[in-house]
Amino acid sequence: MDMNNFSGLDESRYGIFKNARRIWAIGSIHGELEDLRIVHKKLISKFRRGDKLVYLGNYFGDTKHNKETLDELLMARRKIMSLPEVFMPEDFFYLRGAREEMFFKLLQLHFAPNPALVMEWLLDHGIGSSLAAYGETESAARTIVRHGTVALTKWTTGIKRQIQNCPGHIDFTNSLKRACVTEDGALLFVHASVDTTRPLTMQKDQFWWDNGNFNEIKNKFSDFSKVIRGYDHSNSGIVLNKDYIASIDGGCGRSGKLHAVCFTPDGIKHDEIMSR
How are strands ordered across the β-sheet holding 14-17? Predict the structure, then answer.
């Protein structure tokens, strides 16, 4: 695949914005429902014909509102699509964040060679709040991994059934993308980072785990004018003044604000919304 030719890009894994006039990007939410509602209310009043919207992952967080946060994401899309301007499903993309990646790993835990070790790591990294959203507990999670593959398979199947009982949640999780690009190859939206030594389609986990080097990118990555991310593990704040990168993690869920930034197709900030 040529640098700016996305004709061969797997659209089940990557989002491609076509004919974008402006692109709104929302940083990591971390289950902060009220922040998200505030941003959505402001965003819907500003959304115009030709606008696109991408959420940059980490919808789950250490809160009691993870399930309601996904409900709010789905409701906001319905509200925008009911506006007088015509918007299509392909005008919205949702990226997989580290939190969602961990949750998917948990649902596949019965395939792991050492599920107890993996479970401990997942719980240490906050997966308990995601489990609670679908009716499970940390204590049950710690117990089930000691009861063998059959019991663990039944347990993960039960969680999937709970997800299916929440309208739209299965479709939402199945729609999550690895990354999103504009069709002209100018902008790349990612969750946390990129490995500048690898092409776009070879990134895999590099999208979800912040390698700490994102702010040091001094040149174009793979001919993109700008790479825009939604999660900064170091929680160092909004970065919009660099040539080739932007970071829109305002620390929501970590005592900060939720940010939505509107970019022109060449990566210039056109507008910004904050939750507080």
Answer: 14-17, 179-182, 187-190, 226-229, 245-247
